[in-house]
User: Fold these one by one.
Assistant:
Number 1:
Amino acid sequence: MPATERKANALDWLDERTGWRMVRDLMDHKVVPIHAGTAWYYFGGITLFLIGVQLFTGILLLLYYRPTVAEAFDSVRFLMTRVEFGWLIRSIHSWSANLLIFCAFIHMFSVVFTHAYRRPRELTWLSGIALLGLMLGFGFSGYLLPWNQISYFATKVGTDMAGTMPVAGPTLARLLRGGEDVGAATLTRFFDFHVIILPLISFALIGLHVLLVQQHGMSTPGGIPATRLAQMKFFPNFFLRELMVWYGVLAVLGTLAAIFPWELGEKADPFASAPAGIRPEWYFLAEFYTLKLIPSHVWIIEGELLGLLGFGLLAAVWVLLPFWEVNRTKVATGVAVFLICYLAVFTFLGYVK
Amino acid sequence: MRAPAILLFLCWGLLGAAAPDSCVTCHSAVDDAAKGPAALIKNDVHIAHGLSCADCHGGDRASDDPEVSMSKGKGFLGKPARTAIPKFCARCHSNPDTMRKFAPRERVDQFELYQTSVHGKRLAAGDTNVATCIDCHSVHDIRAVKDSQSPVHPLRVAETCSRCHSDQHKMAAYKIPTNQFEQYRISVHWEAMTKRGDLSAPSCASCHGNHGAKPPQVESVAEVCGTCHVLFAELYDKSVHKAVFSGAGGGGGCVVCHSNHGIQQPSTAMLVGANAVCSGCHEANSPEANTAAQMAGWIDGLGAALKQSETVLASAEKYGMEVSEAQVRLIDGREDLVKSRLELHLMQPVEMRKPIDAGMAVAKETLKAGQDALHEKDIRRYGLAVSVVLIAIAMTAIRGLIRRIESNGAAVTGGAGK
């Protein structure tokens, strides 16, 4: 039997059992529209790439990390000082987490400005927003895990804020902390959230999100039918371009990790006074600074509660964007511009004040 | 209904309000020196405890008639003579039963101690220029010692002593120096007390005693310093200097090298150089002076080595390197430096060499940790440069691949083209 025939038989055998030709056909037929905003398409892929980096580095960190109050800090320090390339893995994990959230935000705003959330992509938008929420949850839970002074007190402040929410606040705070205060139970819970619960939900949602993107194809500006635009094949043309971008992101990550290694700080001491200038990670800073500005009481409502209600309202408006935006393009764009300005200005003020 | 209520209120007011103190009422009304006590007494600790003028001076505070309120029949004692003041205060302050009611933890031996003091003895001999209770604690506005406005609060006690002891005119008759406060104010003890807020730092009373105030004698000065500087005193007691300094004409213990009131931050300049305190007894180039110079060199050497390690570690930390373990280890080295300064007081180089060697080992170890971290930083940057070049090559190769694939234009379809 000639070699080509043997190969064809082998592939047929494999296809009969796995259906791999379906995937190949999908790749052969998937196309990407070419227009002025094509560059924005890359951010979804970058975010996915960074999630992969997080998964890979996170698994490596798990080989050494010990999620107990007595050992957490020392295990991270051991990793950073004694384990070959341990510092690199941890620094890349930390920097990648921040870049991931930054790219997810860019991806979200690009979707808004190109109105890619419109019918029939409402569920794609909702799953994307849920994924962004999960990424923020990863950030919040992962921040505590090294059990250092800054992360300990930032978590205390963060869970205190959650506790001020009406009705469910105290229960939520207790659920997060595993008790009345941040302690050993909190570390165990945050570890479970970070490495089991959030990843499981994320995998399911990423699968759904990618499936929906595949189902509806890439959105086009102004709803112009994709067939009226120039298109490139997803594989290999777009994929190779995305691969180039991923390499670029990897270079940025390596540079940040090598020149600005993620610092470890001091081991958390619950009996010490809170360090001066304590603040959360940058992606929570705008909200944190806003709450600081609100007076302790506005009329008869507690200031912090009022702030949280405001954020809740804004979040609801934002999440439900595809459902109220119909024929209100300018309003949606205005809300997005307002949100970007608010986040940029208040994050900046949160840093400098 | 309203009238009985008002009547009841008025009755309560008359019965419940504090009884008027005729001493304060009358002394407030006069314009001469007798007004003083009434004006001052509102801040007095005794008043705060519910006592009144009559509890010290006798008399009847309930009577508005001076003939009655200040009558001998009512037990009026008047202003005590200066020589009688200590005993006057001691009626209560030496009585445990009385003191237990107001300040149970307060000592009751002040009068006893005072009688053993230079002040007490001179007063008993009829010298009324010496300090009595009221000269230090003030009178009529006496405050608790812990009150920062009290003249005997740790922060103010030296100034209070200086009111007499810095007065050349007053001290002339006793032929004692008057520069103690001036000296004390440039000392490490004053600095600790006032700049670092360490209220346990010594002031006059810590070394000289308060109620039993006596200057420490030659043979006891090391014991006085040793109450705080325990380990230094123990080593000094075993040193050759103990016998020499304590003997006739020796000058007395710690103060030979460190002085007394104006104690400065010790340094190796005390051992070697133009201002070395050793040169007062040991000639230059004598074996003892050479040993002192050698020990100074060891201390300076260890100090410099630790400083170098600290600088290198700080530099590594600035580059984001994790060097906290080495920084914690450096604390051991600093402790060895302190121990070596301590061992110096034994004046046995062999013993002093032990903490010096231990400290040098720490300095060497931490310096290596810092240098390794800086070296690691360089390796990381070289590694980064190589990685970036490799990534750039990979990106160029992909770009080439894309161009090759798209060279026939088949990859782009539809619309107006690219």
Note: The beta strands of chain A are 31-34, 230-233, 297-298, 301-302.
Number 2:
Amino acid sequence: MTDDNQIISQIRENTEKGFRLLMAKYKEPVYWHIRRLVVSHTDAQDATQDTFLRIFRSFSQYSGEGSFRAWIFRIATNEALRLLGRNQGKATLSLDEAPLVALTMVADSYFDFGNTEAIKLQKAITALPAKQQLAFNLHYYDEMSYREIAEATGSTEATVKVNYHFAKEKIIKYMNSNDT
Amino acid sequence: MEQNYDFSKIGKQMPYTVPDGFFDQLEERVMKEWKEDAIPAGESGKTKKSGKATVVRMALRAAIAIAACIALFLVVKKVLPQGDNTVTDDFDSVELAFNNLSTDDQDYLLEVYQEELILDNDLNNLNDLNNEESI
């Protein structure tokens, strides 16, 4: 997998080649990150497309300080929140929102209804407050450090740790319950 | 109730799926849209502009061009004597007004004139009105 610094240098040397490297590395992680937040495939597709276009257009604004991956995931999160907000007639949603989207609302063709354990886990995750959901997803699925998550969410490392801890406790409680 | 849950049982499995070939198509769509958005340097000699700014600039240019045309048309119409050949004069005055525009504005006006039925109709109505007045 191409190192982020190589991608940045390549974009500066040959923009198109650099952007293709960026997409090769990040199109799947960004899509799945957004999909876990917005749940619907169509919404995730739109928000992912907007995310990359925004990254390409605002690449010159990336200062080089901090993690490039955190910067990308911050844009992706904002696009997901913007899309969810639009769906509710608002400009965007805030991370202070209660759960963003309930999994029970799903009527998506691209959904494996047979994987009951995975559905239960996603139900538990999507029932969390937005900040806890983000902390859990980025640490569990994307294996980001607390520091990177803090950068991606505009928070502090300590707050992210607390959010992750609460999220995990709630998920464990739900997974051990008889709820489906 | 148990205080632990074995996350390794499920790992990173999710109930979500995507259509076949989705990620390749996504990449191509994004690259295509980005290329269309970014005007290649040297092709038009113009610098890249943001979508909103371009729309505002084009609308402003169109408004100025149309206003200039109408103003010049009215001025020339008042100055020139009215006769049997009014229709020809009208065309001459519009042509004169048009010639006084910058090349960019002329190009833009032609593009709008060809594509916009409303403007097309407006110009026809203007000519009809003028014919009625000359009768």
Note: The interface with chain B takes residues 16, 19-20, 23-24, 27-28, 31-32, 35-36, 39, 41, 45, 48-49, 52-53, 56-57, 108, 110-113, 115, 117-119, 121-122, 140-141, 171-173, 175-177 of chain A (CB under 8 Å).
